[in-house]
Write a structure and sequence with these properties.
It comes from Salibacterium salarium. This is PTS sorbitol transporter subunit IIC. This protein has 183 residues and is mostly helical. The protein has a domain at 48-168. Helices cover 75% and strands 0% of the residues. The termini are far apart.
């Protein structure tokens, strides 16, 4: 009998936990994202979409800037998860690489700029706990996290852009070949 009661309570408890998570999203991250989206869109309208696009084009003209400075600005100013919306300023073929480089940077940035990804700060604090316990400064660790993060986002951006270009090229070839065979 106790087994069935525990099973029933566990079953309902699972849905209660889901409801609490949903309530947390509705009262936490969703309003934050709506306000951030509204503020960013208002800022873009205030500054002028043409100016913002020109600035974004200058920041993304070269791959080294496209996968270092641009994602850094996105993560720093818009934080995670809003930072991915900066991809709207890129051509479609570069969006996957921008996303890949940006998503790889949301953890390393927390050492120096915890506001950028406060929800994942536990990763950095978990790693830094050992350094703190030894009585060492966290500054060098935070700088190393940031520098390695920049190197990783550059590498991932370049590799993903190359893979995306290869896939686009192959997709175009596949679309052309059946028509050539039919004639």
């Amino acid at each position: 009998m106790d087994f069935l009661i525990n099973l029933a309570e566990g079953f309902i408890g699972m849905f209660e936990a889901g409801g609490e998570t949903f309530t947390g999203l509705v009262t936490g991250i969703i309003p934050l994202l709506i306000v951030l989206i509204t503020a960013v869109n208002a800022l873009i309208k205030f500054v002028g979409e043409e100016r913002v696009n020109r600035f974004a084009q200058k920041c993304t003209k070269y791959f080294i800037l496209r996968y270092t400075i641009f994602p850094f600005m996105a993560v720093f100013f818009l934080t995670n998860p809003m930072c991915y919306t900066f991809g709207r300023f890129l051509p479609e073929r570069q969006k996957p690489a921008f996303y890949d480089s940006t998503v790889s940077f949301v953890h390393p940035v927390t050492g120096l700029f915890p506001h950028a990804n406060a929800a994942e700060l536990f990763v950095y604090t978990g790693v830094s706990a050992g350094i703190t316990e030894l009585g060492l400064s966290l500054g060098p660790l935070a700088m190393r996290f940031l520098l390695v993060g920049i190197a990783v986002m550059l590498l991932r951006g370049i590799v993903t852009e190359l893979i995306t270009g290869y896939m686009i090229k192959n997709n175009k070839k596949k679309k052309v070949q059946p028509e050539a065979e039919a004639s």
